[in-house]
Amino acid sequence: AADEDAPPGPTAAEQAAEAKRRAAEEAERAAAAEREERKRAAAAAAAAEEQRRLRAEAERRAAEQREQEQRRREEAERERKKNLVGEAAKITGADEERCRACLESKNWDFEAAVTVLAAEQEAERKRLQQEEAARQQAHAQVNGSHRQASAGPQQGPSLGYDSSGPPWERICARHWKPMPHVQHTMQLLHGERLQVQWTDGHANGWAYGHSIEDPDKSAYFPQAVLVPPLRPAKARDIGETCTVLERFEAPHEIRGYLSVDVGDEVQLMHPIEKP
After folding, report:
1. Which helix H or strand E contains 121, and what residues bound it?
2. pTM for the model
């Protein structure tokens, strides 16, 4: 009688439906959890990618700053070396190409390079003096006593001992460039013809005069670079070939000159004004 009064249990169909419902709910929870996990993974990946991008950007900027700083240092070093070359050229009178080579060989030790350059310039000056003395002697031997009487002073002595002037006509025996702080002086080129109007009376002192080619160019210059002309100047004909008797080094700072050495042959290709 008690069994007859108990409520009936779920049927097999109901049990199956309930199991199916629970399975669906479980599957939905699993799918939701999976979706959430994918979202978290995507967010973590995005965050990691953003961190990588920020690091890369920071590294790029740092590299650019390093490159800019390196360029600034290199430019400053180039300017420093350029200034050293110019200063060495001014002090020693050597051309800038030679000054740069000497500074490079001395690892840009300015004092050491200037010492070498000054010694080279002094040696070159003495060599030119010796060449000029030898040339004067040879010419004197050819021209005999007349040359001895008319030659005037050799390179260096005061022109005051030459009774033929003032004025005196002289030739510049080597390039000479005044220091910037010495006023009322002018640059002379090797071979330039000058008319000397005054000297201070000292063998290695100053003279005053002007360029014969440019009479308006008047100033002071050292007597030590002057020599008397060997012969009167004369015009050359187009096509005429001449043999070089004295070495000439084209000035570095002035264009249009040709360096020649003793024994070279030079042919005149363009008319020039009469001297």
Report:
1. helix 110-150
2. 0.41
